[in-house]
Structure formats: structure tokens, C-alpha cells
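Q: Convert this sequence to C-alpha cells.
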Amino acid sequence: MAYLTRPVRWAELSESEKQSFGNGCGPAWFPDWLIKLLFGWFFEASCRRHDFAYSRGGSPNDRKAADKGFYKAMLRDAKRLSSYQRWLASLVAVVFYLLVRLFGWLAFEYGPYLTLSMIYEAE
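A:
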């Protein structure tokens, strides 16, 4: 089995490949209406991109970087909203980030970076 020495980057994927990761946001058991309600304000933040980083794998530092980048993007998205919505979106961002940091280890593929074909096989 051949592993990569550098991770496959999100920017290297086609649009259809990008759409194939995750359910958009949240655990697989989240209903669509709840995803829309909680995360419909995302513009830049990408749960699929975050899911891809988790599928690609790597070290604890790779996981931390994926989580931190996702959190920063959520905060940038929150700043685009009106003051009340911004406050609520920022709260959702903090809670979601904390949940990802606490429980993300269950989903992250620790170890060598997986190739794109290996990622698809694992899905």
C-alpha cells in the first residue's frame, strides 16, 4: 500500500469530488432541516473540506490545523451577518469548534496521509 509524503490538497479536487465528502455539516444522522438551520449561514466555511481533511488523515497537528482553519472560516462567515445574527452565529461556531475538538478524534484518520483512491475506498 503506497502512502503519500504530502497530503492531497482540497484545491486539487474536482467540484464533483468536493461534493462527495460528508453530508454538508454535522454527523451523518443529522436531518437536512437541522443542518440548514444550524449551518445555513456558512459562506466560506466548508464542512466538506473539513471532512476531507479528516478522511485524508495525518498527525494530531494535521487535525488541529483542520479544526482551526474551519473555526476561523466560521468566524469570518459570522462577521458577514447583522449584529444579532453575528452573535448567534459566533456562538454556534464556538460550540461546533469545541465539539469537533472534543470528539473529532473518533473520526480522524491518524497515520500516514491517504491517497485519494484510499480515501474513496474507506468511505
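The chain has one domain: 26-122.
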